[in-house]
Amino acid sequence: MAQSVPPGDIATQPNAKIVFNAPYDDKHTYHIKVINSSARRIGYGIKTTNMKRLGVDPPCGVLDPKEAVLLAVSCDAFAYGQEDTNNDRITIEWTNTPDGAAKQFRREWFQGDGMVRRKNLPIEYNP
To answer: Which GO terms describe its biological process (predicted)?
Structure first.
């Protein structure tokens, strides 16, 4: 059963962080690539620490082995220097999909007792 095997690795480009540059009076979009480096199909979901400012499209999906997806991370206009941005990040969560499951994302994959892995990408704002 897929749940008993820990999910394999994913790769992200960029690997460590996302950087947005001023000015912040308009919406910015930054593209990141997520690659399923493992030998199993995975389901992924993206979380963000600041739903008002940050959005990710698509927010979830399914990736076959070695498949990649391009995510658009958007940052809405905000008052730089007047809002706390220290803890802003997106978190990618992923888990193996059940054997025989259709290639369609299901939230319940993350709610059972299967193992879920996480990768945090902090967001840096340049003045």
So the answer is: oocyte maturation; positive regulation of smooth muscle contraction
